Amino acid sequence: MSRVVKVALIQQTVGLNSEENFRRSLGAVTEAAVGGAKLVVLQELHRSRYFCQQQDVNGFDLAETIPGPSTRALAELAAEHEVVIVSSLFEKRTAGLYHNTAVVLDSDGTIAGRYRKMHIPDDPGFYEKFYFSPGDLGFEPIQTRLGKLGVLVCWDQWFPEAARLMTLAGAELLIYPTAIGWDPTDDVAEKKRQIDAWIISQRAHAVANGLPVLSCNRVGFEPDPGPNGDNSRAGAGIGFWGNSFVAGPQGELLAQASTEDEHILFADVDLGRSETVRRIWPYLRDRRVDSYADLQKLFRD
Q: Catalytic site residue 192?
């Protein structure tokens, strides 16, 4: 049976002023809701520039509690427009313990739940292990008035295990707030390989699990400030590649944003199609769970 939900992904550039960034995000959520969206997804760590380009203890000043000022403002919007909002925040759990956390505000303004990023990268320009403890809430969908949302975050999107576990727990769609981009020194061919791999991997999650996928990325160049703002020690920066997209349960692209521009990307997602698709492609039925024990190993030596 058809269950069409209008969704909106907020793809934005991010400046130095966190409060202004947040005001712009709130404005975009309002615009999306007025445009008919019932589910609005914000990009990863949308309040600030991507501070993980360097390991700098001053970056912890950006963290906040959940509930906190951001969730209060988002909750008011959610209730006012009767819209479900997926936000991505730098969570301060206590002094010295922080998470990269997605929080879901239900359409009545309540916090429906949160997901703490499980896979934490540690690569040049993406020093997230310095800031974030791995999530401890598992791969649990978040129940909202629209259904069960399988919310994951950025680096999680490369791992089929995460998508599968969300699916097995009853998720009705997969949502990825994201901050991913190129090293500006990469050549054109390398850039294309990276973005193609990024899109293919997530569309594959849609196919393998028979679920829609929503991937919301930031856009625009963000310079590396260097540690403690020392530009003489800065890296090349990151050119966030946008291309936020919505895919259906057979991996079909329903909407896609550009590489350079801000977008409020709308799409109509039929949650009822998953039932139809899974009847013709019954992957869950044919899984050989009795033979998958080695998946619990890092590698088979």
A: no
